[in-house]
């Protein structure tokens, strides 16, 4: 499940007006992008048309992967760090992480077509040690534990757009994330829906803000904003 694209119309981008930064339980209108059916259909179609050896469409943009990888390099994340890719989609980021030397990788997605596609691509790349599981992050039943780094590039966005009780989904996401991460583990989130201020508010409980990663900016209507927000948090007890 990967929602993000960096080709976002400026009118739907994230502006930096502090008065618009607070969160409510109805932040966004519900969308089909928040449903499992949408992503199952999307990845089934990609599975049918993707050539062997082709990673297919990178839904969230290559630059979103690159900026997180640059941060990991600068933060000296060890190659044996336990890394969870939340909503792995076609597994493109798992491929890049493995190529950068990371050896303890897990990807999860609630779409069976996504998992099949990711496994096929990883196998084609000769990356047979990467674990990909069909699993709903919100219903993992405590199976996700002990991770040094959790990476989200659109899953929290999708949960926020779910027509069926996104309020409870957002609360559950926070709890599952806290349980999945080790103390002082890192959370890297990339969003095209949430502003920096809103994400700081959402993840204020149990996390310290570490840094904002540079993303493309624009000016519109006298305001400066970003089409994508990318933040790093650290788990604290």
UniProtKB/TrEMBL annotation:
It is an enzyme of class 2 (transferase). Belongs to the class I-like SAM-binding methyltransferase superfamily. EFM4 family. It comes from the Eukaryota. It catalyses: L-lysyl-[protein] + 3 S-adenosyl-L-methionine = N(6),N(6),N(6)-trimethyl-L-lysyl-[protein] + 3 S-adenosyl-L-homocysteine + 3 H(+). Its EC number is 2.1.1.-. GO terms for biological process: methylation. Residues 17-28 have a biased composition (Acidic residues). PANTHER family: EEF1A LYSINE METHYLTRANSFERASE 2, PROTEIN-LYSINE N-METHYLTRANSFERASE METTL10. CDD domains: AdoMet_MTases (cd02440). Residues 1-30 are annotated as: Disordered. Protein-lysine methyltransferase that selectively catalyzes the trimethylation of EEF1A at 'Lys-318'. One of its GO terms (molecular function) is protein-lysine N-methyltransferase activity. Residues 79-211 form the Methyltransferase domain. It is found in: Cytoplasm; Nucleus. This is EEF1A lysine methyltransferase 2. The gene is EEF1AKMT2. Keywords: Cytoplasm, Methyltransferase, Nucleus, S-adenosyl-L-methionine, Transferase. HAMAP family: Methyltr_EFM4 (MF_03188). GO terms for cellular component: cytoplasm; nucleus.
């Amino acid at each position: 499940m990967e929602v993000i694209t960096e080709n976002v119309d400026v009118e739907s981008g994230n502006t930096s007006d502090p008065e618009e930064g607070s969160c409510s339980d109805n932040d966004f209108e519900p969308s089909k992008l928040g449903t499992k059916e949408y992503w199952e259909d999307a990845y089934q179609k990609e599975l049918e048309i993707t050539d062997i050896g082709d990673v297919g469409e990178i839904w969230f943009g290559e630059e979103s992967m690159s900026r997180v990888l640059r941060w990991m390099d600068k933060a000296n994340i060890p190659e044996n760090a336990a890394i969870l890719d939340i909503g792995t989609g076609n597994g493109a980021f798992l491929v890049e992480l493995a190529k950068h030397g990371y050896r303890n990788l897990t990807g999860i997605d609630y779409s069976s077509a996504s998992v099949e596609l990711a496994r096929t691509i990883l196998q084609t790349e000769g990356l047979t040690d990467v674990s990909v599981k069909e699993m709903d992050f919100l219903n993992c039943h405590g199976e996700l534990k002990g991770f040094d780094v959790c990476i989200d590039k659109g899953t929290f966005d999708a949960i926020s757009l779910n027509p069926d009780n996104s309020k409870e989904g957002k609360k559950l996401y926070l709890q599952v994330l806290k349980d999945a991460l080790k103390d002082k583990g890192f959370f890297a989130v990339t969003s095209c829906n949430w502003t920096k201020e809103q994400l700081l508010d959402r993840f204020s409980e149990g996390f310290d803000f570490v840094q904002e990663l540079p993303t493309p900016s624009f000016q519109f209507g006298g305001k400066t904003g970003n089409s994508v927000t990318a933040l790093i948090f650290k788990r604290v007890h």
